[in-house]
Design goal:
CATH class of the largest domain: Mainly Beta
Organism: Pelagibius litoralis
GO molecular function: DNA-binding transcription factor activity; sequence-specific DNA binding
Helix content: 40-55%
InterPro entries: Homeodomain-like_sf (IPR009057), HTH_AraC (IPR018060)
Number of domains: 2
CATH topology of the largest domain: Jelly Rolls
Strand order of the largest sheet: 1-8-3-6-9
Keywords: DNA-binding, Transcription, Transcription regulation
Largest sheet: 5 strands, antiparallel
Protein name: Helix-turn-helix domain-containing protein
Structural class: alpha+beta
Length: about 290
């Protein structure tokens, strides 16, 4: 495993206010542990006081400054480790929704601070030790960090009058729960209590894709992750994703990626860097 999966960046304590330069590849998400001091982020220099866990998706690269006396540790996270950490359980929906956008989770409860410090240290030790670097171990540490953030994070409430955004958000939640069940779009609309045509219009207006395209993209993202990170035969992957047999899964995958599942698995085993990130596309682009 190489730095295409995750990267650790430690920052020394700031002696004076200085810009914090994030040294991760494009499309990597950023998870920052501000263990003391003050962090300023964005053009408006929003003030965050430590200890805190802060996150920015791969689609954004934050402008960060550390005040004097402040210290931070950062993790650069690929789409793949995020998929591995979030998993595919019903509870995973909340983690996926957590990392859709930037967040700042204040760690006000004393017991959580040493736990987060240990998890960052364990993550760093795993990355620094060449004979270790287990994706399963790293994704487990990340999952614990995200769960910690989820338990203390209070997202800003939606403004009134944004019913359209709320419907799309609820639709995504349902997709996460049922994409392996191959629900018809009409079933999603019924569960949401909206007309099929209205759901279709909202998805097209906000994302540029139809509801069916969004469900299919979620299935493809999961299929790519399993083909890349597991040695399971195609028949088992097909069954896990709700397909009646391997041939239907292969047909579905090829129709949407222009290659068979076997060809994709062979290619990702050879590629690296930007070529692999482009081929992996899925998690951060959905929807």
């Amino acid at each position: 495993m190489n730095d295409d999966y995750a990267i650790v960046q430690d920052e020394r304590e700031a002696l004076h206010q200085r810009t914090l330069r994030v040294r991760f590849p494009d499309r990597f998400a950023t998870l920052l542990f501000l263990h003391q001091g003050v962090l300023l982020w964005g053009e408006a220099e929003e003030k965050i006081t430590g200890p805190a866990l802060c996150f920015w998706p791969g689609s954004s690269r934050p402008q960060l400054k550390l005040d004097a006396g402040s210290g931070a540790r950062l993790l650069g996270l690929s789409d793949t480790i995020l998929l591995d950490a979030i998993g595919a359980r019903a509870e995973s929906v909340h983690l996926r929704m957590l990392v859709e956008r930037a967040f700042n989770a204040q760690l006000e409860e004393k017991p959580k601070i040493p736990q987060v410090e240990k998890m960052f240290s364990w993550f760093g030790h795993e990355m620094e030790t060449a004979e270790l670097r287990s994706p399963m171990t790293l994704s487990a540490y990340l999952r614990l960090l995200l769960i910690t953030a989820l338990r203390v994070h209070n997202p800003e409430p939606m403004e009134k009058g944004v019913e359209q955004a709320n419907i799309l958000r609820r639709f995504r939640h349902l997709v996460e729960l049922h994409y392996r069940d191959h629900w018809q779009i009409s079933a999603y609309a019924n569960e949401l209590g909206v007309e099929y045509d209205r759901l279709h219009r909202i998805c097209k207006r906000v994302t540029g894709r139809t509801p069916a395209e969004l469900v299919h993209e979620r299935l493809i993202a999961e299929a790519k992750a399993r083909l890349e990170n597991s040695g399971h035969p195609l028949k088992k992957i097909a069954a896990d994703l709700g397909f009646a047999d391997g041939s239907r899964f292969s047909h579905f995958f090829k129709r949407r990626t222009d290659m068979s599942p076997g060809a994709y698995r062979a290619i990702v085993s050879r590629l690296g860097g930007d070529d692999l990130n482009e081929l992996r596309r899925g998690f951060s682009d959905w929807p």
